[in-house]
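In the laboratory, one determines a bound structure by crystallizing the protein with its ligand and collecting diffraction data. In a computational setting the workflow is compressed into a single prediction: the sequence and the ligand go in, and a structural description comes out. We illustrate the idea with pyridoxal-5'-phosphate.
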Amino acid sequence: MSPNAESTAFRSALEVVRAVEPRVADAIGAELADQRESLKLIASENYASPATLLAMGNWFSDKYAEGTVGRRFYAGCQNVDTVEALAAEHARELFGAAHAYVQPHSGIDANLVAFWAILADRVESPALKKAQVRQVNDLTEADWFALRRELGDQRMLGMSLDAGGHLTHGFRPNISGKMFDQRSYGTDPVTGLVDYDAVAEAAREFRPLILVAGYSAYPRKVNFRIMREIADSVGATFMVDMAHFAGLVAGKVFTGDFDPVPHAHIVTTTTHKSLRGPRGGMVLCGPELADQVDRGCPMVLGGPLPHVMAAKAVALAEARRPDFADYASRIVANAQALADGLLRRGAKLVTGGTDNHLVLIDVSGYGLTGRQAEQALLDSGIVTNRNAVPQDPNGAWYTSGVRVGTPALTTRGLGTAEMDATAELIHTVLSQTTPGANADGTPSKAKYVLDPALADKVSRQAGELLAGFPLYPAVDLG
Ligand SMILES: *Cc1c(COP(=O)(O)O)cnc(C)c1O
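The predicted complex, in structure-token form:
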């Protein structure tokens, strides 16, 4: 590759866009500048490689390709077949899965594909069988009623939202909460860890069709072998949503009992979080569920996005290289250094630390709500997001936690020394921020007081920390 290839590619692309709508070109350039300047600790974000980004911006976007490799409902899909087959092959090899379905457009979509595959596999529903063989037009009104009745009784057991579970695991704001009768398991009130005996008891009582493991805000490993035993003991299908930690599975940080792929009946993921690929989703499963999973489009998905599947193939090829394992172990070393740095300075952490890529700070220790803490950190150039803590007294909007994660900063090259410096910046801001009051003098859960001079100083320090680790160093937009 020529030394200027990346700069040339992005510069030329922006020049072409600028000729049509300069404001879009400007916004794209501004986004790069913003990302370069901010200390990004959002646990679900990352920086995809230039190769991954560039694989998305092309004529694959113009192609309809409903169906699967070699079995399309549209003519002329031979090149889409090539990239979809490659992405699936890389995914199977990387994760040791029998089957990979790389069409889901996002993590939510991957979960919907998995839910419908499990329902179709497990529930005796003549109406659903008809729908599955694409005889939807033959479904009578009575069939639709039967379908709703037959499926409406099904149960799902997943991790509670405030313990770190995800909306798509059966909670109201998501369709899964309307599809399933849901119950959730929390974490131990003292240790903050998953209590497997409590999960087993909930499973025995509730007898779910689907047991879901996976999270977006739980800072610890989950033992998937034990979870599978629990699922088996009640005849449930065991599904793992590894959206957040797929990179740690790919990078062989989570192995044995902590690798979901050999233990789960079905695994879903995003491709853009710790896995560092394009925005998208994926489903992995054994041969038993493969046919149902492949019906994701048109059951719940719109037509595949061939340009994104091309980028998935590139990113998954990257994740198969030895340096990705090194990256994954550095993500965890960095999260632990950040946790240690915060603890040493007196912060309160949910579970007292981390063994994955994220740390959940209980900011009630600083007398703040999550919302106040998140905004005060943002004023100081530190990008995080507020998040509920277990049994959160402030609810899901204001919350009492701030979630920080290391996949993005680790991609940039920051290491454990910089994580300690980051802990110092976070602690400085949070310990100097005080809750504000409403106009009538009552305490506010949103307003806060932070000396702007301090916020500026921390912003500058954050900038200095990042200066040694340029983002996309080979990309110069001029
Ligand atoms: C992020 C996430 C999702 C949703 O992913 P999208 O791509 O935003 O749809 C689903 N499940 C879990 C556990 C997640 O963390």
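The first helix runs from residue 5 to 18. Keep in mind that any predicted model is a hypothesis to be tested, not a measurement.
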